[in-house]
Amino acid sequence: MLIKQKPSWYMPEHLATPEDVYFNRRQILGAMGIGAAAGVGIVPSLASAAIEGFPAPRNAKYTLDRAITDEEEATTYTNFYEFGSSKNIWRWAKRLKTDPWEVVIDGMVEEDITIQADALIRKLGDQEERLYRHRCVEAWAMAVPWTGVPLANLVKFAKPTAGAKYMQFETFLNPDIAPGQRASWSPWPYTEGLTIEEASSTLPLLATGLYGKAMPNQNGAPIRLVVPWKYGFKCIKSIVRITFTDKQPVSYWQELQGREYGFWANVNPDVPHPRWSQATERLLGTGERVPTQLYNGYAEECAHLYANMPQDRTLFF
Predict the structure, then answer these.
(1) Over 50: is that where the pLDDT of 177 sits?
(2) 6 belongs to a structural domain
(3) Whole-model pTM?
């Protein structure tokens, strides 16, 4: 007899909010001019108007083992070092103009592509909403509803050539609006990378929205990467270039401090950061500390990607 083991993100149907109730509530609140988190002082979204299709249907396969983080917390406590090292950078991020937004896909592909962000998303298929845990290397965590398209769709769209093994992602470079990029000692622009096998797996999203709306600037508008089993610094924001290559990319943090931040950055509670433990995490908004999960709780979906690799510290930082 075949016994099917439930994946780590499974939640019984009776515990999930029915999709019709979820969207009806949003439609009613929208008609009343009230946000989904009315009464808690939500700040302006500062979102791009270019990409449409919000709210998108929720994919019921991706649920959570914890409450969704309050929207205000998730959109006002963010890292975006282009605008400064403070968590409270959402005001500065207003300066970023995200419509129009051009994305270049190049390197080891059949043909280089330059395309507007909204047109790219339309070509990659229908958007969907997924509930994901998000784990920062600084040991805080949140649980949020991301909207986007599977990154695997972009891999197919780009048509990489046979020798391509990695994807390098690059964010914008504009020191006139992003004061953090004026630091000469920092290796701007921000870059990150994945293997093509990682990018083609089921979990990564090319995300365009949050909480049923277009992505706020401070959270990475108009397009960012979401890789939920890795530490948050891998989830590069405001992408302008995606390059397919046969060489492992050297990411921003790896170049800045290679002893502390490596290429893989998979979440593991048993592998501490050189300056702090990763055994527990602080839930954003409540302050509750909970145990960190291997691969952030997504081991069933992604551990096979590393089955033939040494399970040492380099795999987790």
Answers:
(1) yes
(2) no
(3) 0.84
